[in-house]
């Protein structure tokens, strides 16, 4: 076996076994996309495929472009945060998926090899546009509006105590969190000291409420809340999207209100997506239990379930075994599962603070995979080109071209 064959076989197997380092993954894809002997490369990958001893039908050629999309999503981020997500995390499908994905580059789908001269893949094997027209990712940006109307720009405010509200101290930590603490006196003032944290498009923020509950706000979102929770319930209100880790207190339920809907919990982890430009309001439960209600319906969620509030006011509950997709944004990742181009572009518009338009017919392809939210807009959009979705970036505007 030649030195190239030996090295490629090693890289292929480390990739398959999920032990490859980011440098080894880069090397593997570099060899695949630049090999001068495509026949030898094809034979070697077929040999590795056969060694998997899978008694299943061969990979469906019609799925090759989808698998290529997953591979490109995998390679989109330098930090290794992007990944292929095999369906249902089943080990058999992992074997088939990884092997078939690499075979896309050879006999089944010679997409890259046949068009190598035209593609000129960059270091990350992701198409990019000129950096003279690009948009940086969002970051920690928010504005705090106090009960007296005073506003504080949190991303530029100094660390330390920012204000006193209802007997509670409001301060910014060194890691950029907004924290409410104290507040045992002046009960009447506490009850009326309502605050609001708002994130712009291209912003996100994390805060800790006076009861210890943690809240992550996504871009173009807001949270209204009292400086100190008084009375029998802990009531807050959101717009946009937020992830909650609620401090347990059986004697004082935590209630989140949005668009005439209330989510009531005692202590749990859940995500609410209530953007007005989405088709429905979605509540995804990761831990504990929540009750969702409006004037017509009420449902109780169990961990791993998602409730959708339709435009008619009906609440639909579905099992969601991959609930982590709903909170990928909180973990700094774009995560797509059977996502249409419009779904992706709505997320892109909010995170990169751009406007989006479509030239001609909107593409109907669906996408699966993940990529870090720390990449520039061109890197997110560039990977879509391999599925036939073209685009151009001009100032703060992205045009999608079929």
Helix content: 10-25%
Shape descriptor: globular
How far apart the termini lie comes to 45 Å
Low-confidence stretches: 52-65, 75-132
Largest sheet descriptor: 19 strands, mixed
Structural class by SSE content: alpha+beta
CATH class of the largest domain: Mainly Beta
Q: Figure out the total of helices.
A: 10
Secondary structure topology:
Blueprint: H1 3-16, H2 22-34, H3 38-51, H4 64-74, H5 91-103, H6 111-114, H7 116-119, E1 139-140, E2 143-145, E3 151-153, E4 160-165, E5 168-172, E6 178-182, H8 187-192, E7 194-198, E8 203-208, E9 214-217, E10 222-226, E11 234-245, E12 254-258, E13 261-265, E14 269-274, E15 281-287, E16 290-293, E17 298-301, E18 305-309, E19 315-319, E20 333-340, H9 341-352, E21 355-358, E22 366-372, H10 377-382, E23 390-394, E24 397-401
Parallel strand pairs: 1-8, 6-8, 11-12, 21-24
Antiparallel strand pairs: 2-3, 2-7, 4-5, 5-6, 7-10, 8-9, 9-11, 10-11, 11-14, 12-13, 13-16, 14-15, 15-18, 16-17, 18-19, 20-22, 23-24
Give your account of this protein's structure.
By secondary structure, the chain is of the alpha+beta class. The protein has 3 domains: 3-119, no CATH class; 139-326, Jelly Rolls, CATH 2.60.120; 346-401, Phage tail protein beta-alpha-beta fold. The chain is built from 10 helices and 24 strands. The chain has helices at residues 3-16, 22-34, 38-51, 64-74, 91-103, 111-114, 116-119, 187-192, 341-352, 377-382, and strands at 139-140, 143-145, 151-153, 160-165, 168-172, 178-182, 194-198, 203-208, 214-217, 222-226, 234-245, 254-258, 261-265, 269-274, 281-287, 290-293, 298-301, 305-309, 315-319, 333-340, 355-358, 366-372, 390-394, 397-401. The protein has a 19-stranded mixed sheet that branches. Strands 21-24-23 form a 3-stranded mixed sheet. Strands 20-22 form a two-stranded antiparallel ribbon. Strand 8 and strand 9 (214-217) form a beta hairpin. Helix 1 packs across helix 3 (38-51) and helix 3 (38-51) packs antiparallel against helix 5. It is globular. It comes from Mucilaginibacter pineti. This is FecR family protein. GO terms for molecular function: sigma factor antagonist activity. InterPro entries: FecR, FecR_C, Ferrdict_sens_TM.
């Amino acid at each position: 076996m030649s030195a190239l064959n030996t090295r490629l076989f090693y890289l292929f197997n480390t990739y398959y076994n999920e032990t490859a380092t980011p440098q080894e993954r880069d090397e593997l894809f570099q060899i695949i996309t630049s090999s001068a002997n495509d026949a030898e490369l094809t034979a070697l990958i077929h040999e590795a495929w056969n060694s998997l001893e899978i008694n299943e039908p061969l990979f469906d050629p019609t799925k090759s472009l989808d698998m290529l999309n997953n591979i490109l999503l995998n390679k989109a981020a330098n930090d290794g945060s992007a990944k292929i997500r095999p369906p249902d995390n089943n080990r058999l499908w992992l074997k088939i998926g990884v092997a078939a994905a690499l075979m896309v580059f050879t006999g089944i789908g010679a997409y890259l090899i046949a068009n190598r001269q035209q593609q000129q893949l960059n270091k990350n094997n992701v198409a990019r546009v000129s950096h003279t027209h690009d948009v940086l990712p969002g970051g920690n940006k928010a504005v705090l509006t106090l009960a007296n109307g005073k506003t504080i720009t949190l991303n530029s405010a100094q660390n330390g105590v920012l204000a006193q509200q209802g007997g509670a101290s409001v301060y910014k930590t060194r890691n950029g969190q907004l924290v409410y603490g104290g507040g045992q006196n002046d009960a009447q003032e506490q009850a009326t000291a309502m605050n609001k944290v708002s994130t712009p498009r291209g912003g996100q923020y994390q805060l800790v409420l006076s009861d210890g509950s943690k809240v992550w706000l996504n871009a173009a979102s807001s949270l209204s809340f009292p400086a100190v929770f008084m009375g029998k319930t802990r009531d807050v209100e959101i717009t946009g999207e937020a992830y909650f880790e609620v401090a347990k207190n059986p004697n004082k339920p935590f209630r989140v209100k949005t668009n005439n809907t209330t989510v009531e919990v005692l202590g749990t982890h859940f995500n609410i997506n209530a953007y007005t430009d989405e088709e429905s309001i979605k509540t995804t439960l990761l831990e504990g239990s929540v009750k969702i209600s409006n004037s017509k319906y009420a449902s109780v969620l169990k961990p791993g379930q998602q409730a959708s509030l339709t435009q008619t006011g009906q609440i639909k509950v579905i099992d969601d075994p991959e609930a982590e997709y709903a909170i990928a944004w909180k973990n700094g990742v774009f995560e797509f599962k059977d996502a249409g181009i419009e779904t992706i572009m709505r997320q892109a518009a909010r995170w990169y603070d751009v406007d989006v338009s479509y030239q001609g017919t909107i593409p109907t392809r669906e996408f699966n995979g993940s990529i870090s939210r720390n990449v520039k807009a061109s890197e997110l959009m560039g990977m879509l080109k391999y599925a036939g979705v073209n685009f151009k970036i001009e100032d703060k505007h992205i045009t999608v071209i079929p």
